[in-house]
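To: structure subgroup
Subject: Chain for Friday's discussion

All,

I'm putting the inputs and outputs inline so they're searchable in the archive.
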Amino acid sequence: MTAIQKEHVPMLTGLLSVVSLAVVFGAAGGVIPQSAVPTPPERVLETIPHVNAVLSLTAIATIGLGWWWIRRGNVDRHRQAMVLSFALFGTFLVLYLYRLVSLGGPASFPGPAAVEQFVYLPVLAIHILLAVICIPLVYYALLLAATHTVGELARTRHAAVGRIAATLWLVSFALGVVVYAMLYHVY
């Protein structure tokens, strides 16, 4: 990466975060019309939540492995695990947004109103909040890693931001799996 990119990691982080969040909130808010995506077969729409649950569980494993490997000094394996985690997250998000836009909104909770109000919605809200907070943190850590050598990373906030990002990312993914279980298995 060039020196210019190294110097502008915060700006690039902000730009990527704003664009990403605009797409997500645009899809969730119905700004992106259903006609913007090809109409999928019903079976595809029914399969996406289950695929996303597998992607989430796999991401939990790869984030954990990345953390484990860096604590043992294996930078190459750490890098591979974290890049794979980001790719899993990206795949999850594309599938989720595709389904969200195709259906014209999120799935409704099929369980009792009391469970929805006091369990499901708070878990969903925390999951979404952590996911939103994670976006700039993950971008920042990845951009630092992409623009700096391993030796240079020690003089950046990569490790500190990475620890926070990984922790919040793990919790967000785990809560996403809880939301999935409540929507598709418990009720």
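Points worth raising on Friday:
The helical segments are 3-7, 9-28, 42-71, 75-103, 113-147, 150-153, 158-186.
The mean pLDDT is 95.

D.
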